[in-house]
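Narrative of activities, Objective 1.

The group set out to show that a structural description can be obtained from nothing but a protein's sequence at a throughput compatible with the screening campaign. Below is one input-output pair from the validation batch, recorded exactly as produced.
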Amino acid sequence: MNQQYIQNHYGKPRSRRPWHPKIRAALVTTDLLAIIITISTAHIIAFGFRNSPVISGIRELPGIGYIGTGVIFAILWFAALTVAGSRNIRYLGAGNDEYRLVLKATTYFFCAIGLTAYLTTTDFARTYVLVSYPLGMLLLLASRWSVRRFLVFWRDRGRALSRVMIIGDKESGEHLYQILRGARHSGLNPVVAYLPHTPPGTELRGGVIPTVGYSTDAQKILAEVQKNDIHAVAVSTGHNMTPTELRRLGWVLAAAHVALIMAPATTDIAGPRIHTQPLNGVPLIHVHTPRIEGFPAFVKRSLDIVASALGLLLLAPLLLPVALLVKKDGGPVFFYQERVGFRGETFKMVKFRSMVVDAEARKAELMDQNEGAGVLFKMVDDPRITPVGRFIRKYSIDELPQLWNVLVGDMSLVGPRPPLPSEVAQYEQDAYRRLLVKPGITGLWQVSGRSNLSWEESIRLDLYYVENWSLIGDIVILFRTVRAVFAREGAY
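Output recorded for this entry:
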């Protein structure tokens, strides 16, 4: 009787998606390879090809050398990555959580080694440890990036996707559909919509996906879930379901091994800003605004100073010949332009001159040919660009002198694009939030399509950066910038 009730009301658990084991196997294999290569390399660098003994206090530990220690370290390191949940399928393909968990697990593991060595007076070879930590971190992150590229390649071609049912009203359903379709690399593929308390026959705009039901009864929703082979149900803010109905839906979905995703009305909020607080059984969501002040501001500014100074020093052999080529075209080497920076303060941004000397005067003649988005002026074949300028723009070499702006504090390495005063004069209210942080040489706008993006999308990305700033996010953007520059997409 009990078994029959469970079957009738909660359904049968669905089987795992066939691509899950393949991805998990790839992650396990690459993690093991990265750890084995790291431990082996550290051993060879520290001891060559001999098995050096481990010293505890003033005595050698009997029966164990660094080969045996390396095997133990490898097992514990792999276990640390497992316990941290770094191979959780929901972290794969999008966001920084996967990389953050790898970094966290590896750092904690080596901290544990240091604490163990201190408490047991075991003298682990410093070279062995100092080589293992950075090399292992580099190899693990590189291997995770490789698996992610492979997974995204699959998803771009319609494979390794989770079928999603959207529950909400017409407006919120359409919004959530656009969000999910715009982030296909996350693996969430909306295929049907379920609109509780909505008149039968209602469709999302343009009939983008079929609607399959209107009742709030959990059993009827589960029937449609099973009928359409749904892997996850995404509930938007317009679901019109009572707390009791939503709780029952969660129960039946959990029993059927179908994921439940809650999509709050607040958009463009990254995970670290969201904290939940259970209160009488209700999870309250607290949204904190990150502020670039105090110690975080000190760290960001320190990174800017060190990186810009090193960049100017190391790039000097490149900057000098570029300057000579620009000078050969006639006119000044550098182009100084007034830009709006932090909290509306203006500054002179420096670039290698890539246009003719009277480019600003000729801009008015070309306004009717503007191909830029929103208030931006852009032309794919701008006649004002010099031959040398076209080359240095393609590879973003003209932006390198802005390292000086970073060094003196007008700009940061990462931040929104520094706007012209004429652009700021046309801003709508929301766009002014871009000025709450220092402008950057690179940012989300630049690594997500550059000039190919619409004005609205550019503003959204810049606001996302302002609302969700983190040091790890800056580092990820810097790495993505290298890829975007060599891809040369949207650069003109």
